[in-house]
Design goal:
Layout lengths: L11 E5 L5 H7 L21 H26 L16 H8 L14 E6 L4 E7 L7 E3 L23 E10 L5 E13 L2 E11 L13 E3 L7 E5 L7 E9 L8 E9 L2 E2 L6 E5 L6 E3 L1 H10 L3 E4 L4 E5 L6 E4 L4 E4 L1 H4 E4 L6 E4 L1 E3 L8 E4 L1 H4 L2 E6 L4 E7 L1
Parallel strand pairs: 1-9, 3-8, 4-7, 13-22, 14-21
Antiparallel strand pairs: 2-3, 2-6, 5-6, 6-7, 9-23, 10-24, 11-12, 11-13, 11-17, 14-22, 15-16, 16-20, 17-18, 19-20, 23-24
The structure holds 2-acetamido-2-deoxy-beta-D-glucopyranose (10 copies).
Length: 394
């Protein structure tokens, strides 16, 4: 995201990999952060967690709404075809079901590509979600006295000699009506040994309860203009198969957006769905496309509309369709495991797919590829060259 001139990382490769051992760190000479490989929308019994999916979908919609607001504030306009939707909210039925649910002991909803950063001089450490679909860096403030902040690491601006307060307040609204907000600072930020000075950030004093159980302290985009690179690996990043295929980003929207995507469904191009825009978003759990396009895709593989509101489709669990994305080079396929979000109910032969149709306000030709796609590939975000690279995992 470039909607705010937030950060400046110096020339260095910053690599965040998944499940790597200390030996890998040494041999690569890069910082390696272990990441979670599991799917948070599937319950332990293999059944699709509808309520969790609704909550995440609402969060995704509101995050992108906020991105558009930021874009509009910075440029005075919205990208062509984009529109500001109203704030999405979690239906009260879902809220009340969640309230009455037994908390599961192992339900650490670690849905992020998380890693450590330090802020300030001397450095204060935080675990943040590296969200390539977000334009803000925020961490809890030492002045946050809400219960949701209790278990978090907190930023103390007065303890950092490089911290400087800026005018204005940062605020983002989440689906349950709660918000994350606080004052804005600039300070030095260090990620994987790379130091950035003058990074904009918000030290939030208001933190929605929904973040209390998140393993991370805050969220951040942090890539910047000059030669910085973020690499997110899938299940086994040690083994990239073949070359990394690079694509210039479409910089008209401020997203990590690649033009000219196509989708193959079971090896066939889907008629009427081609040359679309794709936003690569590590902060989103599944993949979304425009409602009509996704309907066409599922139709070719006999998918059934499961939930119109959420744009979710089901398929025969035993015959998982193969969806592959292509930008003029290799095909990058979503594995059956990553496509399958679980049975529609316990004992069902139908399973929910991780490609949904939704209008996110991003234009009728823009897809949003989150974890369910990104877990299958090795993705490089290169802000120096303004490129996104993909490689197959072997
Ligand atoms: C980065 O900043 C930290 C804290 O300010 C400092 O200790 C470290 O030496 C710096 N590293 C580099 C590579 O400049
Ligand atoms: C919490 O902080 C706010 C301002 O940050 C303050 O107005 C309020 O009194 C504080 N509450 C408690 C219980 O300390
Ligand atoms: C903050 O606002 C004050 C008053 O409007 C202004 O004088 C000052 O220059 C602003 N500071 C920054 C860093 O923009
Ligand atoms: C980017 O880095 C190069 C080489 O270090 C430098 O010449 C150039 O001025 C930098 N550009 C910006 C925008 O910082
Ligand atoms: C870039 O994205 C915008 C908005 O999604 C789109 O209208 C435009 O056609 C794209 N540009 C190119 C060169 O594809
Ligand atoms: C967007 O890309 C075009 C062509 O690659 C380039 O000329 C332009 O400077 C870029 N704009 C920004 C804001 O990076
Ligand atoms: C991608 O998949 C399609 C459909 O299976 C196939 O026709 C095409 O040759 C594949 N492309 C590459 C580069 O493998
Ligand atoms: C979809 O259903 C039709 C009719 O039953 C069948 O001929 C076709 O093979 C099915 N396609 C897939 C991908 O299952
Ligand atoms: C799911 O169904 C199986 C049998 O099909 C049963 O053993 C199991 O207890 C059920 N689980 C739940 C959570 O209902
Ligand atoms: C998107 O909307 C525009 C304007 O309404 C229309 O011209 C265009 O054909 C639509 N594109 C798709 C892929 O539906």
């Amino acid at each position: 995201m470039f909607t705010k001139r937030i950060s400046l990382l110096a020339t260095a490769a910053l690599t965040i990999l998944c499940d790597a051992s200390p030996t890998d760190t040494e041999s690569l000479g890069r910082t390696v952060v272990p990441l979670r490989p599991r799917n948070p929308l599937t319950r332990a019994d293999g059944v699709f967690d509808y309520d969790a999916a609704v909550i995440q979908s609402v969060a995704t919609k509101n995050k992108h709404r906020q991105n558009l607001l930021n874009f509009q504030k910075n440029t005075g306009y919205l990208p062509a075809g984009f529109e500001l939707k109203s704030i999405a909210t979690v239906p009260s039925s879902v809220v009340s079901r969640r309230l009455h649910e037994e908390p599961l002991t192992d339900e650490n909803q670690d849905i992020e590509w998380a890693g450590f950063i330090t802020i300030g001089t001397p450095p204060q450490t935080f675990l943040i979600d590296f969200d390539t679909g977000s334009s803000d860096l925020w961490i809890p403030s030492a002045a946050c006295n809400q219960t949701s902040c209790k278990t978090k690491r907190k930023y103390k601006s007065s303890a950092s000699k490089t911290s400087k307060k800026e005018n204005g307040t940062f605020s983002i609204l989440y689906g349950d009506g709660s918000e994350v907000s606080g004052p804005i600072y600039v300070d030095s930020v260090s990620v994987a040994g790379v130091n950035v000075s003058g990074q904009w950030l918000s030290a939030v004093t208001v933190l929605s309860e929904s973040f209390a159980d998140e393993p991370v302290d805050g969220f951040g985009f942090y890539l910047s203009q000059n030669g910085s690179e973020l690499t997110l690996g899938g299940e086994d990043p040690k083994r990239i198969s073949g070359q990394i295929e690079y694509h210039k980003i479409n910089n008209s929207t401020g997203f990590w957006q690649v033009t000219g995507g196509t989708i193959f469904a079971n090896g066939k191009k889907v008629a009427g769905v081609s040359a679309f825009e794709t936003i690569i978003d590590s902060g989103t759990t599944i993949a979304y496309g425009p409602t009509e396009a996704v309907a066409k895709v599922w139709k070719t593989v006999n998918g059934t509309l499961f939930d119109e509101e959420q744009g979710l489709y089901s398929f025969s669990c035993e015959k998982s369709p193969k969806f592959a994305f292509n930008w003029g080079g290799k095909n990058f396929t979503i594995s059956s495991k990553n496509l399958n979000l679980g049975q529609t109910f316990n004992g069902s032969s139908q399973c929910i797919g991780s490609l949904a149709g939704a209008d996110l306000g991003l234009g009728n030709d823009t897809w949003l590829l989150g974890d369910s796609f990104m877990k299958n590939v090795y993705t490089v975000f290169d802000s120096g060259k303004n490129e996104v690279g993909f490689a197959n995992l072997s």
